[in-house]
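hey so i finally got around to running the thing on that chain from the lab meeting. sorry it took forever, my laptop kept dying and i had to restart like 3 times. anyway pasting the input first so we r on the same page abt which one it is
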Amino acid sequence: MKKRILLAEDDANLGSLLRNYLQAKEYETTLFVNGRAALDHFTSGIYDLCILDIMMPEMDGLALAKAIRNIDPAIPVIFLTAKNQEDDVIEGFRTGADDYITKPFNME
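ok and heres what got predicted. didnt touch it at all, straight out
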């Protein structure tokens, strides 16, 4: 059974590129362009990993991660963001991130 990834990224080009890359690696990946849509479709146990941008419309990635953790405290959460200041990274980990990757990044 394929692992399922929830991907929340408001940059449509980057989101599609990343979704296609992950699907080529045999991950079932669902892309959402804002945090609210991602949360509306999130159900505990359906996804194996969440990859979240921080700066998104309607609900930012930090609020989304908190809401997801309230539903499923064990799901891994990775932030993928342009916010690269030390305070941003600390806030990401305090929010519950398992990893924090800054853009630009290497997909390999």
